Structure formats: structure tokens, C-alpha cells
Write the C-alpha cells for this entry.
Amino acid sequence: MSETITIVETAYGPVSGIVESGIARFLGIPYAAAPQGVQRFAAPEPPARWTGVRAAHEFGATAPQLPVRGKLGELIRNPVVEGDEHLNLNVWTPTPGGTRSLPVLVWIHGGGFITGSSAVTAFDGATFARDGVVCVSVNYRLGVEGFAYVEDAPAQANRGLLDQIAALEWVRDNIERFGGDPDDVTVAGESAGAMSVLTLLSLDLGLFHKAIVESGSAHIVQTRQDAALVTAEVAERLRVDSTAHALADVPVRELLLAQQAVCDDVATTVNARRFGVSTIAACGLAFMPVIDDTLLHRAPIDATAEGAGHGIPLLMGTATEEFRLFLAPTPLAARPEERPFRDSLRAYGVPADFYDRYAETNAPPYVRDSPLDIACAVLTDRVFRIPSIRVAEARAQAPAPTHLFEFGWRTDSAPNAPGVEFGACHSLPLPFAWDTLDNPDSREFTGLNPPRELADALHSRWVEFARAGELSGWAPYDTSQRPVMVFHRNGQPGNEVVRDPHGNERELWKDHLNPRQ
């Protein structure tokens, strides 16, 4: 089908997009000015107005980052687009020009707060626009520039979150011109993007009206003191002071290399004395939101327990074997001895007897007959499932509903990683939720024959939630029945609401990962 051009006037000037098969896409629209010099460590500023029509036909620059290394880089395609104007967003709409007022979904990508972008091909917003939801995906600053605590900087911390807020403000002010309803916005994200969504939810910004969280946690936050330790490590590697001006003078690639080295140290040494307790509690992340007493005054889980965000409907999901993505393709996976796995669990604050308790559960299709299997199950709960349950528990009496789901389909060995058993791992739900199974990049991860009916089921539920904020035949979470929609349960196709799946293991954590009282 032939392509045509359409033009929409934004608050900063007109943009042209491409219309194909009834869907208009506008790519790389700036929502903030390019952060340069010391402004890399400042809050985002509005972009300068332009007078001519700006072509929005290709993805804009991505935030500075290094390519994802190793097998993960081969499995999860992550385009890196050079350029300074990386505070940009994309819009897909079936009704450019504002002829209808459709619900809006705003996507915040993941990547551990150091990688990722809106240019990932699996995040093709045309699938949502096709189903009557205007889709927006955003880029934001990452790593040192986005999340390092820099005491003398114009914005000491959380610049990546400030970018996300600026993008939501752009949506509020502009999306009606693209056919979207600024009073019906769902913000959604996965992994670090999901952690961002839960953080934004805890701020009661009034910029969105529903939230979708895939593989997130409201526990991921640093103290200023611990974040400063990480920044000091980066500066020491660069042999500069940990000031905004000194860091801004470092060439971008050198900064990224130092950043990566420190991220590796945090993940492998698990040294709380060196990097801080709150850093190590994040289970491998070096950069994340910071309690700076300016934007964030407490951990998102604590704010949620106190009632923040309770008026906003929330849909949250996890994959059954999240941590297999991080451990299965590593040399550690082949080690038969238990000690390194037990040591890792202990370092991340897991009680000593949990390894043995989880080993007692050994039933198909999630067989735990190796130390890797057991450690992945424990860490999946430690980092993702139990924190998600804690959010749902904190919202059990909220006026707005909270729906939980679990994604249980197990991928075969991916073409680029023969022999690696990823199972129902982290990030695997994304091509199903986005209905992009036919994308060649998705097949690198899902394999060649993923179940189409599963994509239909999960994607349609996300669309239903973005439209209505509630889900038919799926009761909100409560602390008595604990209903969870399980997609592809126990290796069987289909989906059903299950009462308290993995309840025995949930009970093990009853005295852990709770909000501060």
C-alpha cells in the first residue's frame, strides 16, 4: 500500500508524518531541547520553535549508550542512533488532525537505566493505533547523565525522570492534535521503564490516568549518599572530580565506558560498603531513581503504602522465570555447585534457608533440578514478583483497581543462542503485549513458532485496559482471594484467573520487602 504525508501543528511548530495502511506515524519529535554541556545535568528545557514543516519520518537520536554486549545484545535488538537531540518521542495514530478523541498509551522503555530506546522495532505503536489507541513512545536520559547523583549539578538527580515528566507534559499539551484524549492517558513501561512508571505513580502528578507495569518494582531507589558513592567511582575511573562541569567535559564515549565498568563492578562484586546498601538492594543496578528530597522524598513503595497513586487504575505483570534472561546465557549457568548461587542470594538479602525451600518445588514445566533453576526462581521473586505483590497489597483498599497477571509461556532456544534455556524470562512478554511477533527482531527472542493466540490475548487485555481502566472477567487484586490472570499456565495454552499462584513461596516473603512502617 502506498504511503502519503500528513502534517500536524504542534506547540513548537508543524511536523509531517507518514500514513501507511490507515496509520500515521510521526517519529523523532523533540519534546525538549538537546541537553549539551553542563545542561546534560540540568532539568529539560522546552525545545526551540521551528517555522518550516519538520519531517518526522525516521526515529530520532537515542540517549547516549553503549551497545548491549554478548548474547543479550544478539537477542534483544537495541538500535543506537547518534545525535544530540535525543529527548524525542514518537506518535502513532489512526486519526491525525484531531478528528476523534482516542485513549492514549505512553511507553517508557526499559534497559536497566543505562540502555534502551523508543527505536526498538518490537515497540511498533501501529499495533495499538490499529486498535483505536494513540501510542506514544519516549526517549529519556540514561546512566550518569540521567540518574547519577551530582551534588553541584543544576538538577542533582533524577534527570531521566524529569525527562519522562516533560514528555508527559508534551502529551498533555499536544496529543489532542494527533487525535488523542489528553484526559485519558495510560503510561506503561517494562523493567526500568516499569520502575519509572511506579515512581511516577507515587508522585501523583496528574499527568496520566491509568498505568501498566511489566516486570517492575517500587523498591528500586537509592539514597543520595549511596548514589554519590557510585558517581565517585565513575569520576575516579575518569580521573576527574565528581562535579557537573568536570563530568560534562569528558567525551561521551569515555563517560560511557567508565559508566559500564562501574555497572559491572556493582553487579559482580555486590559490595554494599563500596556502593551503598540501597544500591546493592537493587540487585545489580548502579543507576536508578534517587531520594533527592526535591522530586523524590521517599521510596515509591512507601509513598504507595501511604496512598499515593491510589486513584489511578493499575495493571501489573511479571514473567514466571524473569531471572533466566540474566543468568541462563552466562558461564555461571553451567556450574553444578551451589555455593556461588547461594552466595549471590545472600548478598542480595535473601534469607539463608530460601534456597532450600525453593528447591523443594520441582514440578513441570518449571523444573528446578539445578542450582541455576533454583537461584532464578528465588531472584525472580526477590526482584520482581514479590515487589509487584507488595504494590498490589498496598493498594488493596484503593478506590482504583489493581490487576495482576503472570506470563508463563516458555520460549525454545533462540536462534542466536542455541542450547540456552530462557524459559518464561524477563522481556519475553513484550512482543506478545505489543502484538509484534511477526517482527524479525522479535523472532530472535521468541523463536520461530510463538503462539499467536497468546499475543492476541495479552495485547487485547492491554488495549482493553487502556480504553476502560478495568478488565472484564478479571477481579481486582485483594489480600483474601489474591486473583492473578495467568497467561499460558503450566505449559498449557490459554489464560485463566488463578487464586494466589505460588502461594507457598509468597508466604515465605511475608516478613520481607514490606513498606517501611
Notes: The chain is about 35% helix and 15% strand.
